Amino acid sequence: MSEKLAILWPEIILFLGTCVVMILGLSPRIEARKACAAVAAIAIVLAGIVGSLAPSGGSALLPELMNYSKGLIAIIGLLLLLLATGTVDRAEERAIAAGQRTFDPLRATRGEFYAFFLFSLTGLMLCASADDLIWLFLALELTSLPTYVMVAISTRGTRSQEAGVKYFFLGALGAAIFLYGFALLYGGTGTTNLTEMHAYFAANGLNPIATAGLVISIVGIGFKIAAVPMHFYTADVYQGAAASVSAFLAFVPKTAGFLAILAIVAAPGWAYGTSGESLPPELRVTLWVIAALTMTVGNTLALMQTSIKRILAYSSIAHTGYMLVGVIAGPGDGSFTQNGVAAVLFYLLTYGVLNLGAFAIVACLEHDRGDTTEPDEADHIDDLKGLCRTKPVMGWVIVISSLGLLGLPPLLGFFGKVPLFTSGIAAGEIALVLVLAINSAIAAFYYLRLVNAALLSDPDPKGETLRETPLPLRRVAAVVATGGVIVLTIAAGGLMTAAEQAGTYAPMTHDEAERYLEAAGRASQAAELPEAP
Amino acid sequence: MLMHSAVQNAAEAVVGGAVSAADAARAFALPEVTEGPWWVALIPFLPLLGAALCGLCAAFKVKSKLPAWITVALLATSFAITVAMFQQLSGGASISHAFRWIEFRWGPEADQIFTANFSFYADNLSILWMLFVTGLATLIALYASEYMSHEVGTGYCRFFAAFCLFVFSMSCLVLGDNLILLFLGWEGVGLCSYLLIGYYYKKPSAVAAAKKAFIMNRIGDLGLLMGIFLTFVHFGTVEYRELFALAEPYVLALQQGRIGDIPAIVNLIPVLLAIGAFGKSAQFPLYVWLPDAMEGPTPVSALIHAATMVTAGVYLIARTYPLFLASDIALPLVAWVGAITALLAATIGMAQFDIKRIMAYSTVSQLGFMFCGLAVLTTAGGVFHVLTHAFFKATLFLACGAVMHGFAGQLDLRKLSGVMFMPGWLIVGLAMLVGCLNLAGFPFTAGYFSKDLILAEAFITPTMAPIGWILLFTAGLTAYYTFRVFFRVFVGPKEFHPGDDAHGEAETDVEEHSEQVEQGNPQAEAVGEKAHDVGDEAHGADEAEDHEHGHGHFHPHPPGWAINTVLATLALASILAAGLYFIGDKGWVDGMLQSSTAQQVYLTQEGTRASGYALVTAEPAAKGTFLGFDPHKAMYYVSAVVGLIGIGVAFVLHYLGRTEAATSRADKLLPAMGPIATWAQDKWRVDELYDMVIVKPLRVISHIFHVIDKLIVDGLVNLFGVLPRMIGSALRPVQSGQLQGYAVGMAVGLAFVLLVVVLMAVAGAGVAS
């Protein structure tokens, strides 16, 4: 266990940060309460530095995955933190500052909010270093559980509470499904360790119980990544939560889900099918159907929406579908253009940055409703009208983010999509790549609507209450994310190398697997299991 | 004759009659490529930093000259680094790797690689270019700090940001170690050129000129892009180092007259690259944008549209010279296009009245000379002319700009006279004189030596003698139109009519200059009065010109220290550049180029015969002559005489007996010339021709396509647009917001997936059994 400790320092740092933040949030002194965000930021930066410099560890199958993922999580996490400033307690703090009320620890939620934020990131980082099903389950739930609360407390309205409850119940259902899948996997292989499981599969092949376990696990984890048929909650929850929390939901649980899916499908590996280079047929068909349906459902439903958050929610479903193509394609020969795993990891980065910019626009624009009530988020697509003229910075943030999400060359999203296409083609999944291409075209309809509203339309005469948020850090997040789109586009080469390395897949041969099992004292156990029909 | 040893070996082997593969393995000496120092990357990135800082200044609404000083400081540092690199470079080439940019691999073994990195290829050719690009950019930025002073504020920041961005792009173009980076720089300079031509974006003519430049350049860029595509298709790389090595066998084939061994695609690549060069360097038929580009601020005209950017085409050809040497059609094409452009632009330049436009046409004409220089195989001549031209043309433009700045935008040579002898204008006048002497090819000036190299080599190269005669004639015309400007504007009776571009600063200047008059400067006063009188007459004669305002109050404001310093420095540099001709065996530039890939290449007799063109055997007997003399020696005298005749004609027609600005003796000749003079004044109506032959038909076609697009294409698109929407509306009721409904949906989905898997398993079992 001590060797595990060496790779857990980032998580430990985040946890310590969480404890400090929770206490600071209860302080009667405003300075101390204000330090919550700063402490959280420091914890994330430290965790990111330690995480990307740590010795590689985690799963033996994807040995380089951990450091890249932790660096990625820290970067996007920091931007999300900037965006999340001022989400909770704004009216409360104003009342206290005005002397209308004194500080009441029972009413304040700031400490909890940042603590849960960090807890969720801790879980996400744990997902990146998971090599065991139990570990993976706990990490996934540690990622998700805080988000249920974050959704519920993100605004004072009942819609958030409704969204939080809905998210919690459906999340529990999803967790139950993949936990059932994990149980079947244990039943089918006799181990919860993913490396050992891989050795078992490599030595003995698949059996029906394990296959069922794999399929059910993937479908269940589909809840985290918002894949069909687990996607229903997405739009309602994203819309109900504050935009900053929606941006969090669109990145953190999704990344956790993809890291988990990669860890799980790496166990059987891409060594089946006629070519001997694809996933087990049942798993492949499952993922294939889920990917195709997810893209199509996400994109077609996004077409009808007028709420920006709902558009982005459905588009995030569609992006899940795109990334599943990379999972199906698998590592290929390991080069960047053929490695689907690297493509997924790179896409997570591009999607994280672009999506943040897009959600930031909702978080940064609000309708002023006077002093008495909280300002409303400007969530309607008409609010974007003429934004490039009235508020040029915000206008260009949404234009560049939308075009990037659309995958317009030469922006970052384009470089994200290219390896998904090329790895899919290299893996022979021509039909799925066609579905991906058609869906990318459909996505243009609604992304261009956003661009059109901001860039080409005349300002909405009803929009005089529209103003930029007084919270400067949110605007910083929006501008940094958008600037990142451009900077990362230029630096894409280096990031591609990093992703290529992170996507390294180290499977065992049949002989190695047998030796491994023998060393683990499990050779006899394997023979006792029922033979495949 | 100084020859590279490898070439000599090959040539001797052929002369000896025994071509062994080992002896003739090298067509030209490929430079040894070493790892370069990292700080070369600073040359482009410092200007980029400057652009960012100027952008920040705009964001913070800086209302001082800060952006100009940032620009000057960073560009000067960049220049210093270039000089350091020049010191360090001793022949050969070095590649400095900045960062990985594009790298794609594919194919069964991932052995197909497309690489284009941010790496910088420093050899004598690229460093030579960078020396004058960064050096001139620094000086011109200093000049612009004063010239643009009435724009201080956001416009000032915008100007210097684009200026810095231009230098960054130009550095990428020149220093890039692959064609993609070159293309990035190529497009970057095009963009900056567009931004800066359209700097006065409220002026419709400036916007139109910017668009024209952009669109004309697109045509050339298409050629360049196709050339790059074909290069990658055929050679499998766009990196110079590998590309030149791969091109060598073809050069060798052409040298030895094995034309059949050269595939059509290798012949085509340089032609396409040349089309790109024609667009960027304003050669026939894509030259019409450059004169209009003079709508931009004068420092921009001087830097971008005279000294640096327009020589990018020359650089492209010099850089990819091995590819051009591998084709027997590309260089003759370049030669003829260059010669036609030189002559055409010179004839137009003779008939114009706007002095900046005359300089623009002379730039087009001189660029033609440079293309000819490359095409008649004297890369040294072509590049030397680029270098000298950069200095003297910048001088000329900046002097014209000083006039324009001082006389409220007046550029008509019929409305200015004797400027040089007005108080405070002596330095401008002397700088102008130096520039004019260079451009006219006055003996012992730098322009004289560089032009002679091209002219002489044109007569030496077989089949290129017609080019030589055209260029010689053009040289005479050049001398005439250059001194036409000088004799009319800078000397002669003192007289001026200010333009109608009295900028904001003029208000304050009026005070200042009035004081000067009061303090006893009767000359200035006299000038002012005279201007007033003649101005009224001119007003009556020419109602179209409205320069009512400012009369009687206007006094020209002579240039300040920044403009004078820069003009003096540049004029001095133009004079000193002549000295470069005497360094080394065949001039400094030749010495530089011999260790780069743009070295002079010699053909064997077989090669000369088979290609029907192209020189130059090692034997003097095969060389062309100038009417039986050695062209190099004869040209010293011939071109000097031609230049002096041109100057003399200008002296007689435009100086002798001229009493006022508006008329000269040349006017008496106009009726005798009939319509030719008017046509030349109308630029041979080339713009109208393009409008009739290209623009109008295209507009008709576009209307037809518009209808087709509306009816058929839009219909199809709408059909496909409706389909996803229908699916979307069918799915929408499922998103009811009901928790129970969602849970059921998830369960049904899971059941469906399991069903599929079970069915598969059953089917699989069925097949297996």
Description:
The complex is a heterodimer of chains A (533) and B (769). By secondary structure, chain A is mostly helical. Chain A has one domain (2-527). Chain A contains 23 helices and 3 strands. Chain A has a 3-stranded antiparallel beta sheet with strand order 2-1-3. In chain A, helix 4 (65-84) packs antiparallel against helix 20. Chain B has 769 residues and is mainly alpha-helical. Chain B folds into 2 domains: 2-493 and 562-635, no CATH class; 686-730 and 743-768, no CATH class. In chain B, 67% of the residues lie in helices and 4% in strands. Chain B contains 29 helices and 5 strands. Chain B has helices spanning 5-15, 42-59, 66-88, 124-147, 154-175, 179-197, 204-235, 240-255, 264-280, 289-292, 298-307, 312-319, 321-325, 330-351, 355-375, 379-406, 426-440, 446-460, 465-490, 505-518, 522-541, 561-576, 588-594, 605-611, 631-654, 666-673, 675-681, 686-731, 739-768; strands at 33-35, 93-106, 112-123, 416-417, 495-496. In chain B, helix 4 (124-147) packs antiparallel against helix 11 (298-307) and helix 17 (426-440) runs parallel beside helix 22 (561-576). The radius of gyration of chain B is 30 Å and the shape is globular. Chain B starts with a helix and ends with a helix. In chain B, 52% of the residues are buried.
List the topology elements.
The complex is a heterodimer of chains A (533) and B (769).
Chain A: H1 2-7, H2 9-24, H3 30-53, H4 65-84, H5 90-97, H6 110-128, H7 133-153, H8 158-189, H9 194-204, H10 208-225, H11 233-240, H12 243-265, H13 281-303, H14 308-329, H15 340-364, E1 365-367, E2 376-377, H16 387-390, H17 392-406, H18 412-426, H19 430-456, E3 466-468, H20 472-490, H21 492-502, H22 510-519, H23 523-528
Antiparallel strand pairs in A: 1-2, 1-3
Helix pairs in contact in A: 2-3, 2-6, 3-4, 3-6, 4-6, 4-12, 4-15, 4-20, 4-21, 6-7, 6-12, 7-8, 7-12, 8-10, 8-11, 9-22, 10-12, 10-13, 11-14, 12-14, 12-15, 13-14, 13-19, 14-15, 14-18, 14-19, 15-17, 15-18, 15-20, 15-21, 17-19, 17-20, 18-19
Chain B: H1 5-15, E1 33-35, H2 42-59, H3 66-88, E2 93-106, E3 112-123, H4 124-147, H5 154-175, H6 179-197, H7 204-235, H8 240-255, H9 264-280, H10 289-292, H11 298-307, H12 312-319, H13 321-325, H14 330-351, H15 355-375, H16 379-406, E4 416-417, H17 426-440, H18 446-460, H19 465-490, E5 495-496, H20 505-518, H21 522-541, H22 561-576, H23 588-594, H24 605-611, H25 631-654, H26 666-673, H27 675-681, H28 686-731, H29 739-768
Helix pairs in contact in B: 2-3, 2-5, 3-4, 3-5, 4-5, 4-11, 4-16, 4-22, 5-6, 6-7, 6-11, 7-9, 9-12, 9-14, 11-16, 14-15, 14-19, 14-27, 15-16, 15-18, 15-19, 16-17, 16-18, 16-22, 16-23, 17-19, 17-22, 18-19, 18-25, 19-25
